[in-house]
Specification:
The chain is an alpha/beta fold and about 350 residues long. It is built from 10 helices and 13 strands. It has a single domain, classed as Ribokinase (UDP-N-acetylmuramoyl-L-alanine:D-glutamate ligase, 3-Layer(aba) Sandwich).
Length: about 350
């Protein structure tokens, strides 16, 4: 029996919706696993401050634009943005870091209290300046960024206080993964790296690293090492081209074996990601996106990856989901966490 045109259209529409629902059930199933996870985030926290306005003229005093101020906002940044991504995906983030006993430290604590984040991992030190990055924007265009920060390693007393907090938190309750979010500001010291990775391995807790140059070679025996393209070349003193995937793989494989990592996830911006976990590599291409701002994409990747490992998700699907999430935050202006609803509407199937 030949169906009418309207009935055929209805069947096609229903089939398309069913396919979309099946895909969403797959992602929904993954996201459901995240709800029971507690992730410890160790690293350099900061306040991201934004100042918006309009520019309609050039200053008569110097050849610079005059911004007519309209509004400002403070947000959690640095390692705390990893916590925001983890929180946004339904899990519990536990931040372990050091802030100053200054006005920006007070702002930072207010921001985490608004979200009911645990505070027991935060150490306040009169010897540190709380990092704040102030971005000045005209519409979507960033005109300037002003940074106030310390970047020296913690003094020995503060280092020990932070390490004691970390050990106490891990001993007192369940932690499903540990993230080292290193922004090279000094909160992550060689002693803390060694002690925490050792403790994580002893308790079978996955440890994930988003490195910077200073500590690049100190994260041996971590579960997952996630450099970006620039960090890899700097860290191994090389100049491999971004599209030379075979050479990148061999460099990553050598790094993995030398450092004792279980896997390396190399982010390549517009070229996607390269996952090395054995004798071969997987290349995960970037989804087609309209890039507005790449700020915070690395935080999203490591946050998503930590939840995937904590929830027992296959490494390849971990890389795919992290890649997808990073692309989504790049489509938004400013440092923003990935949201569940964005992922649920994504055209991707994980087979769960």
């Amino acid at each position: 029996m030949i169906c009418s045109f309207n009935l055929c259209q209805w069947i096609i529409s229903l089939s398309q919706q069913l396919i979309k629902n099946l895909k969403n059930i797959g992602i929904a199933g993954l996201l459901e696993r995240f709800g029971n996870c507690r992730i410890l985030i160790l690293g350099d926290v900061m306040v991201d401050s934004y100042m918006w306005g309009n520019v309609s003229r050039i200053s008569p005093e110097a050849p610079v634009p005059v911004l007519a101020y309209s509004k400002s906002e403070n947000r959690l940044g640095g390692a705390a943005n990893v916590a925001l991504n983890i929180h946004s995906l339904g899990a519990v983030p536990v931040i372990c870091s050091v802030i100053g006993t200054d006005e920006n430290g007070r702002i930072f604590k207010e921001l985490i209290r608004e979200l009911n984040f645990p505070e027991e991992g935060i150490v306040e030190s009169p010897h540190r300046t709380t990092t704040i990055k102030t971005r000045i924007l005209a519409g979507h265009q960033q005109l300037m960024r002003i940074d106030r920060e310390d970047d020296h390693y913690l003094d020995k007393i503060t280092e020990q206080l932070l390490l004691n907090n970390i050990k106490k938190i891990i001993s007192a309750g369940r932690i499903d993964a540990i993230v080292f979010q290193d922004y090279d500001k000094g909160s992550i010291t060689p002693l803390i790296i060694k002690e925490v990775i050792s403790l994580g391995n002893a308790r079978n807790i996955p440890t994930l690293v988003d490195p910077k140059k200073r500590n690049f070679s100190l994260y041996g025996d971590a579960t997952l090492f996630k450099p970006n393209y620039k960090e890899l070349n700097e860290g191994i003193n090389a100049d491999i081209q971004k599209k030379d995937f075979e050479s990148l793989y061999h460099a990553v494989k050598k790094l993995k074996e030398k450092a004792g990592f279980k896997m390396v996830l190399l982010t390549l911006s517009e070229e996607g990601m390269l996952l090395c976990q054995g004798e071969n590599y997987d290349l995960i291409p970037t989804e087609v996106i309209d890039v507005a701002d790449v700020s915070g994409a690395g935080d999203t990747v490591i946050g998503m990856a930590s939840l995937c490992l904590a929830a027992g998700i296959d490494p390849y699907d971990m890389a795919r989901l992290s890649n997808l999430a990073a692309g989504m935050v790049c489509e938004r202006v400013g440092v923003v966490p990935v949201k569940k609803e964005w992922l649920l509407n994504a055209n991707i199937n994980f087979g769960y």
